[in-house]
Amino acid sequence: MDKAHRHEELEEEAAKPFGLMGYFLTPGELMHACEKLKNAGYKDFDAQTPFPVHGLEKAMGLPPSKMPWIVLTCGTVGLLSAIALTAFVSFDYPLVISGKPSFSYQAYVPIMFELTVLFSAFGAFFGLWGVNRLPMFYHPSMKHPSFPRATDDAFFVTVEAKDPKYDASKTRKLLEELGAREIVEVTE
Amino acid sequence: MTTAALQEDTPGKRAPLVLGHRDFNAVTETVAGIVEKKTTPSWLVLLGLAVSVLLILLGSLGKLAAEGLGIWGLNNTVFWAWDITGFVFWIGIGHAGTLISAILFLFRQKWRTSINRAAEAMTIFAVMSAAIYPVFHVGRVWFAYWLFPIPNQMSMWPNFKSPLLWDVFAISTYATVSILFWYVGLVPDLATLRDRAKTKVRSIVLGIFSLGWRGSHRNWLNYEKTYLILAGLSTPLVLSVHTIVSFDFAVSIMPGWHTTIFPPYFVAGAIFSGFAMVVSLMVLARKAYGLEGLITIKHLENMNKIILLTGTMVGYAYAIEYFIAWYGGNEYERFAFINRAFGPYKWAYWTMWSCNVFSPQLFWFKRIRTSIPAMFVISIFVNIGMWFERFVIIVTSLHRDYIPSSWTYFRPSLFDISTFLGSFGLFFTLFLLFLRFLPAVAISEVKGVMPQADPHAGHGDDHGHDAHDDHHEEASAKSDESEDEGDEGEEASEGDAEKDEEESRG
């Protein structure tokens, strides 16, 4: 009895809708659909494409990426680390070479440059996964029966249920009008 | 295959970059098919061969670690020879990959998409092969960690004023950034393979490495920005790496090395030799895996043009070195150069000239530029010539010291030769594994340069469903060669892309 009850709870849990998903076969149709969704006042919708469709972020009304700031910060830290490292080493273990001063920063430019690049690259790499919230090994959109085509040749659009304008039947109708195929309500 | 497409080689009307692939799925099938099909016996034979050569390398390095540098042919006068030659040779080969993946990306050269993945893989493997030399030529390899500023019980630090230490930083940064860049590019393609996986194990392994990539445009937006930033970082990095490699020589006061032209000359030479290696490998790989539709003659021809350009630059550098040696009026410098051309190593010097400067000149002829056997032979010549270039710079400058009593003639020992040959084993082992297990062509990037990828081109699709977008409509071309693509849309975004890059460099 207890088991059955828990099972019911799980059922309920599983049945929570995540959103409506459908796909198009050309980037042009997807772009058109995203523009229409944006104009209809939807905010929480996403496109899933096998390659980046240029101009889609404008159609979706997405803000610009924050990546450059992350990289700039990391690069600056790299430069400062290089200066600190070379300065510390010059004074901790002075090597007098042809009478030049200990901290001959000109000779350290390559080190400063390389460490700036190294830190920036790490910032770009880890920042990218951080900003994108990856690795994420499970996502409701993967439940769509045709999801494997999202990384091959189909251009998906998902309108999420958390959007205030979301309404299962109205949204479905809008997607149908836009010509989306295989519109499925995926659950969380 | 489709020579008609190549005839349209007029500026403004470009040959299509992808031939014989009607739609996106066809590209996926071609590239993923290589990884998914059964292992072929020929691949196994090649891998066996490569691994046996790799074992030669391991044996040589084992002996070196056990007995010391005496097993090489070095002597008091020639203290650097095949080791550093091999190092610069491999690093140079690595540079083409970064040039294709980063510099051509910044220049919006769309033809890079078919070759960048393999070229970047080549970069990483070449840097690995190169790294063997500086690590092992220190002799007592177990002290190689002294190269890094690690606090130690001797309270000693490395000498940051030495180009050799700059080199340590440059090479390790280069290797790291290349690997990161390569992996970022791989993630969407690994996700494609994950979604096609037939077995549980395969889908779990690919699932882990593709980080759950689902092609969300919010992710693509950051991804593309990051890719641009990494390209912007890699571009000055790749130039700095070979510049610093050339500083190993140029910062010294050795006649023949003490030359300010070294940094640009080395960079041009590196790109030159790297492209030759890319051509050698691609010619074979596209044939073996049926990638002719993705790596077209057009791609190879473009690379040959770059080989011609950089080869001519290298020729200019050889000539100007001579002029400056005479013009500078330093008798030791003059002797070093006369000795190079007419001394005991003249055979190496003229091999270098004929392979690097004369043989690529054949690429002025379109027939040779577009002939597979001819370009393969020339690319091999260039690889040989570039090895000789480093050999000439290093050994001929050293072997006749200031005092004639210490003049020597360097002869490689068996272990010099086996170590160098063995490094090819490492390189080819890794490259074969890469071809077998990872997508050799950047699937998502190639799709992005197909004419159908332009959201403003209202192409019909194979389901007969018309794209009804409010942009202009074109009739879809269902032939093997689609019409040339309008890349005007991309040009517009170039300006702000460059701005971002400036920002990101700090």
From TrEMBL, chain A:
<feature type="transmembrane region" description="Helical">
    <location>
        <begin position="111"/>
        <end position="131"/>
    </location>
</feature>
<keyword id="KW-0472">Membrane</keyword>
<feature type="transmembrane region" description="Helical">
    <location>
        <begin position="69"/>
        <end position="91"/>
    </location>
</feature>
<protein>
    <submittedName>
        <fullName>DUF3341 domain-containing protein</fullName>
    </submittedName>
</protein>
<dbReference type="InterPro" id="IPR021776">
    <property type="entry name" value="ActD"/>
</dbReference>
<dbReference type="Pfam" id="PF11821">
    <property type="entry name" value="ActD"/>
</dbReference>
<keyword id="KW-1133">Transmembrane helix</keyword>
<keyword id="KW-0812">Transmembrane</keyword>
TrEMBL record, chain B:
<dbReference type="Pfam" id="PF03916">
    <property type="entry name" value="NrfD"/>
</dbReference>
<feature type="transmembrane region" description="Helical">
    <location>
        <begin position="372"/>
        <end position="397"/>
    </location>
</feature>
<feature type="region of interest" description="Disordered">
    <location>
        <begin position="452"/>
        <end position="506"/>
    </location>
</feature>
<feature type="transmembrane region" description="Helical">
    <location>
        <begin position="306"/>
        <end position="327"/>
    </location>
</feature>
<dbReference type="InterPro" id="IPR005614">
    <property type="entry name" value="NrfD-like"/>
</dbReference>
<keyword id="KW-1133">Transmembrane helix</keyword>
<feature type="transmembrane region" description="Helical">
    <location>
        <begin position="43"/>
        <end position="66"/>
    </location>
</feature>
<feature type="compositionally biased region" description="Basic and acidic residues">
    <location>
        <begin position="456"/>
        <end position="480"/>
    </location>
</feature>
<feature type="transmembrane region" description="Helical">
    <location>
        <begin position="168"/>
        <end position="193"/>
    </location>
</feature>
<feature type="compositionally biased region" description="Acidic residues">
    <location>
        <begin position="481"/>
        <end position="506"/>
    </location>
</feature>
<feature type="transmembrane region" description="Helical">
    <location>
        <begin position="119"/>
        <end position="148"/>
    </location>
</feature>
<feature type="transmembrane region" description="Helical">
    <location>
        <begin position="227"/>
        <end position="245"/>
    </location>
</feature>
<keyword id="KW-0472">Membrane</keyword>
<feature type="transmembrane region" description="Helical">
    <location>
        <begin position="86"/>
        <end position="107"/>
    </location>
</feature>
<keyword id="KW-0812">Transmembrane</keyword>
<protein>
    <submittedName>
        <fullName>Polysulfide reductase NrfD</fullName>
    </submittedName>
</protein>
<feature type="transmembrane region" description="Helical">
    <location>
        <begin position="347"/>
        <end position="365"/>
    </location>
</feature>
<comment type="similarity">
    <text>Belongs to the NrfD family.</text>
</comment>
<feature type="transmembrane region" description="Helical">
    <location>
        <begin position="417"/>
        <end position="438"/>
    </location>
</feature>
<keyword id="KW-1003">Cell membrane</keyword>
<feature type="transmembrane region" description="Helical">
    <location>
        <begin position="265"/>
        <end position="285"/>
    </location>
</feature>
